Amino acid sequence: MISTSLSPNTQKTDLFQSFKLLFHTPKNTLQDLETHLKNLLGLKYLFLTNSGRSAYLLLLQALDFPPNSQIATQAFTCNATINPLLWAGLKPLYIDIDQSLNLDPKDLERKITKNTKAIVVQHTFGNPANLKKILYLAQKHKLPLIEDCAHALAVYYQGHPLGTFGQAAYFSFGRDKTISSIYGGLLATNNQALAQKIQKIYEKLPFPSSLWTKKQLLHPLLFATAKPFYHPLPLGKAFLWAARRLGLITPAVAQMENQTQKPKYFPARLPPALAALVLSQIKKLGSYQHQRDLLQNLYQSAFPTIKTPTINEYAKPNWLRFPLLTPKATTIAQNLKKKGIFLENWYQRVIDPPKGNLKSFHYLPGSCPQAESLAGNILSLPTNIQTSPKKAKYLIKLLQKELGTNQ
């Protein structure tokens, strides 16, 4: 089976680690993880949370903008970037995207108003946004820049890691991110004054319950059990459905029914057991990145005539998923699913997933035409450690047939 999102980082060592952590958590995991992250990211002040959304919400609480302030953020995104704004009583100001699938500086300048209080720049799929121009606009309008690095851990721009260019940055260790603790996040900054404000809130945050933490540890174990039986018969899917019904695993936040209601356990700190999962994977980050670069080169060589996102000057992407731009994306994904290949087409609309009501996210149709045009036309190819070059070459052959580009 080939998949972009079904526990894509999990290897045998991770399964063994998850099983051990159900019964015992080593001491000092949070401190050890902080040390590794500081060395990796070049950021001084770190706050480990139970999700990327929690990290973003914690930041918004510390910045304490007036109610109904506008926060400039791109369309063509996940509800993870919009929910915390709504929970904090703020309003998204939607900015269109450019050909890199990131925030378009020209549309940003057109839309900034006196009520705009900050700019959030998302590095989509691990492809850095045009920070040179966006930073210029942030400085011109005296607005803090926040980096959304959920897709872009240890990705570089102008030779520096993403997350170091703005006033603060948040990262995700979610189930299908660069490294994963199933649920997990990080808020980071080099701004001492801001860090002190964050610290006052952070030190009062609880840890999630022990039961909630154990459910996250069960996630890779249950998914590893289910995946061999996911296709052709949907026995694995039925197994995971039953596990959710029994409360053995929790759904992703994006899959929850009420997209605008804050979960009770947000924001909260990262439990030490989940920190241990992040720590074990961060030590393998080099091999993960090498794999992504290898598969990216395979895909680029195989599809020279298929449009892909542009890469900005000074940017060095490390693709969380490799996107092909094609109007056949949805049809191809459905066809390949019959063959046991599960490719999610991030993003299916301007605010993904489609379950949420766009009105509840305050999105005005027609306000971001480029994002609306591209949404649903992105075929995201796997670059994770479970997708071997052999599997990637098999996928390429199937895609070349679907796209009519047989070499």
Task: Describe this protein's structure.
This protein is an alpha/beta fold and 407 residues long. The chain has 2 domains: 23-202, 3-Layer(aba) Sandwich (Aspartate Aminotransferase, domain 2); 285-403, Aspartate Aminotransferase, domain 1, CATH 3.90.1150. The chain has helices spanning 12-21, 29-41, 52-63, 83-87, 105-111, 131-140, 192-202, 210-226, 235-245, 272-282, 285-302, 329-337, 369-374, 389-403, and strands at residues 2-3, 45-49, 70-74, 77-78, 91-95, 116-122, 145-148, 156-157, 160-161, 168-172, 185-189, 315-316, 321-325, 341-342, 351-352, 378-382. A 7-stranded mixed β-sheet has the order 2-11-10-7-6-3-5, with helices on both faces. The chain has a 3-stranded antiparallel β-sheet with strand order 9-8-12, with no helix packed on it. The protein has a two-stranded parallel sheet with strand order 1-14. The longest helix is centred in the last third of the chain and has 18 residues, at 285-302. The relative contact order is 0.18. The model has no long low-confidence stretch (mean pLDDT 94).
